[in-house]
Write a structure and sequence with these properties.
The protein is an alpha/beta fold. Helix content is about 35%, strand content about 20%.
Length: about 350
């Protein structure tokens, strides 16, 4: 009863309502956590459904937080739920982190991970971290208050700086085994419950690693990394001034994304450049031939050496899900500012959803 009362009084903020966020919220609500915040600015799409099983085909096109809120109330009508249908920013962190006991990172991009981590350190909030890619997943508890009054390691102790541009792909780009986010999200929910109730031993100062192909698990012991301290903002002013998208090589703002319909109606005369790797399917030969497109295949990994053939051209980049095409557009815009450069929103997956391939 004592533990259940702690859960009822607890306030947990979950940032991300996708593959990780869905099982996290389902189990926290079912466990009786009394106050939950959910932040996500994305809409449900068909390509989400194999791993974000809280959603159905009837939810496609709806905002995720709206669907989640409704379904969580049907699971536990006593829960108090607050939602943000917005991209999470520094302002959100400073305004809302103080209202919550535990922060849960259920995002899938490095800009958000570093933003959330730095805010948690600055404001003294325990952070339950999870990440998935293809067949591997990781879970950890960062910045937990220790018995001696210090805080456990944080995300920057593990990764002081973000990886190079394009070095690590998110779920949309690299793919993920559908059941894997369920496994990792459930582990994150477990750590939240342990933090709230004081039961067991959390993954503080440890990184839990799981491989779904072999069912092998190993735990890494983590220690403080002195190099990381210089990268964490030490004040609210420094934190608010930091540009996390720039730091994590997110393409510059201002790149024009076009949807499939707009592309069909207005941009078929532009050079269509597929920047996926040769092994990525489906290929676009038949589509491009049927539409009479001028098109090229230049993998992002070799694009920098081939920008010369694209300068001063009108170009539409396409990739698997619309993220790498933004990077490609960014590269060409910097090399050739006078080029008309566009990125196909949703990429090949959206072409497939529209039944064009």
């Amino acid at each position: 009863m004592a533990g259940q009362q702690k859960l009822k009084q607890a306030k947990v903020l979950v940032i991300g309502a996708g593959g990780l966020g869905c099982p996290i919220m389902q189990y926290l609500v079912a466990a009786g956590v009394g106050h939950i915040g959910i932040a996500d600015n994305d809409k449900v799409s068909l390509s989400n459904l194999h791993r974000q099983v809280i959603f159905g085909t009837e939810d496609i096109g709806l905002y995720k937080v709206d669907v989640v809120k409704q379904k969580m109330f049907s699971l536990n009508s006593d829960v108090n739920i607050r939602t943000w249908n917005e991209r999470w920013t520094q302002e959100h962190c400073m305004q809302h982190f103080p209202d919550y006991d535990v922060v849960v990172d259920a995002t899938d991009n490095f800009a958000s991970r570093y933003l959330i981590n730095d805010a948690s350190v600055l404001l003294g909030k325990p952070l339950v971290f999870g990440a998935v890619s293809q067949f591997d997943g990781q879970v950890a508890v960062f910045n937990q208050l220790q018995a001696n009054g210090s805080r456990s390691v944080n995300y920057r102790d593990l990764f002081p700086l973000p990886p190079a541009n394009g070095e690590v792909l998110n779920c949309s780009e690299g793919g993920v085994l559908g059941v894997l986010p369920g496994t990792i999200g459930t582990m994150q929910a477990t750590e939240v419950i342990k933090l709230i109730t004081g039961l067991g031993k959390t993954l503080s100062n440890r990184l839990w690693n799981y491989n779904a192909l072999t069912q092998e698990v190993f735990i890494m012991q983590l220690v403080s990394n002195p190099i990381s301290h210089q990268h964490i903002p030490s004040s609210e002013e420094q934190f608010m001034a930091a540009d996390y998208e720039w730091m994590c090589a997110v393409p510059q703002r201002g790149i024009t994304e076009i949807d499939v319909l707009d592309w069909q109606q207005n941009f078929l005369d532009h050079l269509f450049v597929d920047i996926r790797e040769p092994h990525e399917l489906p290929r676009l030969d038949a589509l491009c031939s049927s539409l009479g497109l001028e098109w090229m295949e230049i993998p992002l990994s070799s694009l920098e050496n081939n920008l010369g053939c694209l300068t001063d051209r009108n170009v539409v980049f396409v990739c698997q899900a619309g993220m790498r095409s933004l990077m490609a557009a960014d590269m060409l815009m910097k090399a050739s500012p006078d080029s008309a450069v566009f990125s196909l929103k949703g990429g090949v997956r959206m072409l497939a959803e529209k039944k064009l391939i």
